[in-house]
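Dock L-homoserine; give full complex structure.
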Amino acid sequence: MEVRIFCPATIANLNCGFDVMGLCLENIGDEMIFRKITTKGIQITNITGADLPYEVSKNVAGVAALAVIENRDIDFGIAIEIHKKIKAGSGIGSSSASAAGAAFGVNELIGRPFSKKELIHFAMKGEALASGSEHADNVAPCLLGGFTLVRGYNPLDVIKITSPEKIYAVVLHPHIEVKTADARAVLEPTIPFQKAITQWGNLGGLIAGLYTEDYSLIGRSLQDVVVEPFRKHLIPHFDKVKEIVLQEGALGCGISGAGPSIFAICEGKQIAETVAVAMKNEYSKTKITFDVYLSRVNDKGVTLL
Ligand code: HSE
């Protein structure tokens, strides 16, 4: 009759994998509750932690939920409660957590006709409402866990890669909002050939490094010559934070999703803790309030509580 779920935060792009790479975080995420009701259709009955629309067609969770039940003969309705912990516009997959969570929760209540991988398609419908584009680099890791690669969009082809044991992510979330649609608007529609070569070389290197647990290769590959140069100006002190984080031994550092969060990937907890302190010290010099999270890679993705 009722399910309660945890919808984890995610880091998309991972420098070289714009719109195709992502990873799932462990201890940061929203909760959602789904309840069978007699009135058919989807209703959003409670939202805490964020000022979001209750109108189903205007809410990312509502849109994803509707997509799952579309064309299915279901003789009950579903009421959804959304308890947001991930701030909207933070760059760690807030809208994706709602969209992926809604697809997952509804699927549970209607008897689980879809696999988690199949649910990505429905979650992308919700994501599109928030960002204006149907990308899966947050919803895929949110649903599947681990690292995910969207090999192709047409048809959707997603590969999950279990994280190497010692990978830790550190996330600095400055309390400013960057809208994904705005961060996409600053990008150039075409890429110079040399930059494309560098970027796909790095993406191949990242995937190879993840499979072979080659931390040095992962570090060499965590670079972005295509998107970061256009977006970094939206994030105060990005260059300084990146410089310090790399000095402290992080394997790589970049913009989390569309920003403003900045992430670092580290080998081992000790370096991750040092990097977290360095991020805090550096950002304390600004007038912007912030949070810093440290997390292993969550291999499960969205889960029942
Ligand atoms: N790949 C997306 C972007 C992630 O960077 O625009 C944010 O939703």
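Observed: The CA atoms of residues 2 and 35 lie 4 Å apart.
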